[in-house]
């Protein structure tokens, strides 16, 4: 089952880039608009992994390493061995607060939404709606990639 939510743009979605750890550190040190998060805060992490651009995963802050780096623990992603939640060091630029829970009565063509699938939220736009069906185009390429069956 896929869940939809309104896309609350905390940050601009930008064209994903493949960055080395050194590039991420440099980019983080040049940014002046990052928030400070505390141990235990529940947040969303924007993926920079190839094939996962435009997706967000819920995590908890484990520790702050510096102004620009945090250790996080995902709430839905597991380590490669499948035992225990995955932990990573991420740039502060990848972290955003959880969006507010806003009840939605319906969606319209062109609405920016997030679709919850495969343990994360994927940003997209509604491209087609018909009774019981909805087609999403996922960002950043905005190509149609999902046909959703929606309960009426």
Automatic annotation (TrEMBL):
It comes from the Eukaryota. Residues 35-103 form the Agenet domain. InterPro entries: Agenet-like_dom (IPR008395), Agenet_dom_plant (IPR014002). Pfam families: Agenet. This is Agenet domain-containing protein. It comes from Lactuca saligna.
